[in-house]
Amino acid sequence: MSARTYFVGNRIWWAGALFLAPIIAAVVDSPVAGVVAAAILVLPSFVLFDTDRTWWSSDVRLLPQDEERSRTEVRLLTISAGTGLALGVVIAYIIW
Question: Quick check: 63 and 53 in contact, CB under 8 A?
């Protein structure tokens, strides 16, 4: 798998997890459920997107050494996760 696939997958995972958490909290009518859902949905990303895993190509395993690209990708990850969370909160507010 390529570095691009790694970064796009990571962004989609985090955005999706943070999008779903507030919606689950609104449906269940409990903020605690949203926190638990966020934890359950986000925790697998620390295993799947660990660059030391054997399923990632050598390009991905070398990513932590590329500081400039890592900084850019962390910024994009933050933006996508924040956007997912914001959209989830808006939809949760509409549902609630």
Answer: no
- Look up residue 48 and give its two tokens: 């799947």
Token pair 């925790």: residue: 43
Question: How much is the pLDDT for 54?
Answer: 87
Residue extents of the structural domains in the chain: 3-95
pTM: 0.87
Quote the CA–CA distance of 55 and 36 in Å, as a whole number. 28
How many CB atoms are closer than 10 A to CB 4?
10
Which of 17, 56, 53, 9 is CA-nearest to residue 35? 17
Instruction: List alpha helices for the chain, DSSP H.
Output: 3-28, 31-48, 58-61, 67-95
